[in-house]
Amino acid sequence: MLSRLSFGVQRKIVIIGFIMIPLVLLLTFAYYPALELIRLSFTNWDGLSPDMQWVGFENYREVFRNPEIFGVFWHNLAYFVIGIIQNILAIYFAVILNSRLKGKHFFRLLLFLPYILNGVAVAYLFGYVFDTTQGSLNLFLGSLGLPSDTSWLGSESFVNYTLASIGLWRYMGFNMVIYLAALQSIPADIYEAASIDGASGWQKFRFITLPNIYRIIELNLFLTVTGALEVFDIPFVLTNGGPAGASETFVMKIIETAFQFNNYGLASAMSVVLLVIVVAVLSIQRYFLNRGDQ
Hints:
It holds the Pfam family BPD_transp_1. It is a multi-pass membrane protein. It is found in: Cell membrane. This protein has 294 residues and is an all-alpha fold. The protein has helices at residues 7-40, 58-65, 67-70, 73-97, 104-112, 119-129, 136-143, 159-184, 188-196, 201-212, 214-229, 233-238, 250-260, 264-293, and strands spanning 43-44, 53-54. The mean pLDDT is 88.
């Protein structure tokens, strides 16, 4: 049937089809659920009853007034701090493995392998590493004559940093590969010219490497911030929010509110607040990074 139409009409049909199909999918699986989430955030709904009681902004007031809900964001701070360290290490290894290092392909593979592992498997793996009595980390520290009875997952003061360090091990190789791709796009002639002019290694990194990978740094910081605010799998599997809720993240609190306490209205409001905070933080980050780029 299409063969009977003119080329111009066929072209328009194909273009409209390619536009409409992803647009329908986007509206169905992204924008409609988001609007429904916002609508539910103004109700008191248990997830089962056909009736939804309209409560206005009461759920949002509860989010900001209850320190057990909004205060959980402080637990996510550790993931952001470790995420910054993760990016610094990723740049460091990317620069080293972009040089003429013998066996660099093996080391690239070695650093990237943790990223392809399943998150739950990684959590169980580090459960044995951080075990207080028979954990490999404490056994290693004991062999060096250092204190070997540290409760890495049982201390409220640093349990989040312990959990965040797992993310550093898992995602650093992924960030390194992204930085490595950016470094390989920089022409080698620039470095050769800088060497002829007597530039040191630090000067090459500061005035050539950093400006050329600035946008990639912005991208990885975007991933770091969103990952720090939305972390869930590692603390859920290893500590389930313990000890005494010290490692509970905001996403875990949302899931607990919805599926354990059947308060879908409050959970929806918490999800909207998380979305707004993510957008706000990323907007601030983008503003300062673009300002620095100028």
